[in-house]
Specification:
Belongs to the band 7/mec-2 family. This protein has 9 helices and 8 strands. It has 346 residues and is α+β, with helices and mostly antiparallel strands. The strands form 3 sheets. It has a 3-stranded antiparallel beta sheet. A 3-stranded antiparallel beta sheet has the order 6-7-8. It starts with a helix and ends with a helix.
Length: 346
């Protein structure tokens, strides 16, 4: 009989346990029921925690960190909210991009509870709700981008997801601080095509760079030849100018020297014994010219009196005397004409 009563009581207890959690207790409350502190009248709340107190089943107040007092039986701690920044691992999920490429993406979510009242009564399980919201937002944001933009605009994608989560989680008292995509898994075939595209792009860049290098080399060579020709022409021009200037200076120097020699010779001839000096100079020149015979050409024309030096000198001096008389006569006639021109007419 005792066995029958125990079996009946056990069955009733099991039915009550099965019915009560389903009707009155939520999964989040079941997880937190074991961690909720008991009402011991005097309570010490840790820093960065918020305890939600219910009095006779209704929200009463939120305990601040430090020493707090509660009424036994009437007050109970309904929720304990952690105000620290929490890190939630978003599970891997599939998403389709704008160009119909299926991607496998997982991420990390960083959030913090700002309002313990909303986090306790606004949503059943805040962390689960934010995780689901992050997954749905990620899928919707990825659907707006192509595969190439997903990798290039990763930072903007994270900011868009955070903004969308904050708009929906404001009623839950939760603030999403940042969201980071950990890994993006691409199908093998798409990955192969991406690698081929990268290789083709690199080959294209290499070809373009090689052609640009060849062009720059040709331009540099042409510029070098041009500069070399310009410098050579300028050098030749400067050399010709220098040679011409040197030759002109040499001609002027020779002319001045010859002029001075003639002046000195004329002055010497006007002096006493000038004829003798002129005869000596002519004789020296005759001897010097006679010594050069047969050195420049093989044909030699000699006068009949080649060995008679005195006759040659006499002949040269006769020519000189006739020329001197002629020049003297011309000078006198010029002076007389000048004198006649200067006389007044009567």
């Amino acid at each position: 009989m005792l066995r029958a009563l125990c079996r009946t009581g056990g069955a009733l207890l099991q039915q009550a346990q099965r019915a009560a959690p389903r009707l009155w207790v939520t999964p989040a409350q079941q997880r937190c029921a074991s961690s909720l502190p008991m009402n011991t009248v005097v309570l010490f709340v840790p820093q960065q925690e918020s305890w939600v107190v219910e009095r006779m089943g209704r929200f009463h107040r939120i305990l601040e960190p430090g020493l707090n007092f509660l009424i036994p039986v009437l007050d109970r701690i309904g929720y304990v909210q952690n105000l620290k920044e929490m890190v939630i691992d978003v599970p891997e999920q599939s998403a389709v991009s704008l160009d119909n490429v299926t991607l496998q993406i997982d991420g990390v979510l960083y959030l913090r509870i700002l309002d313990p009242y909303k986090a306790s009564y606004g949503v059943e399980d805040p962390q689960y709700a934010v995780t689901q919201l992050a997954q749905t937002t990620m899928r919707s944001e990825l659907g707006k981008l192509t595969l190439d933009k997903v990798f290039r605009e990763r930072e903007s994608l994270n900011s868009n997801i955070v903004q969308s989560i904050n708009q929906a989680s404001d009623e839950w008292g939760i603030r999403c601080l940042r969201y980071e995509i950990k890994d993006i898994y691409v199908p093998p075939r798409v990955k192969e095509s991406m690698q081929m595209q990268v290789e083709a792009e690199r080959k294209k860049r290499a070809t373009v760079l090689e052609s640009e290098g060849t062009r720059e080399a040709a331009i540099n060579i042409a510029e070098g030849h041009k500069q070399a020709q310009i410098l050579a022409s300028e050098g030749e021009k400067a050399e010709q100018i220098n040679n011409a200037s040197g030759e002109a200076q040499a001609v002027l120097a020779k002319a001045e020297a010859k002029s001075k020699a003639i002046r000195m010779l004329s002055d010497a001839l006007t002096e006493q014994n000038g004829d003798a000096a002129a005869s000596l100079s002519v004789a020296e020149q005759y001897v010097a010219a006679f010594s050069k015979l047969a050195k420049e050409t093989n044909t030699i024309l000699l006068p009949s009196s080649t060995g008679d030096i005195s006759s040659m000198v006499t002949q040269a001096m006769t020519i000189y005397s006739s020329l001197a008389k002629t020049s003297t006569h011309v000078v006198e006639e010029k002076k007389s004409d000048d004198d006649d021109g200067n006389k007044p007419h009567q």
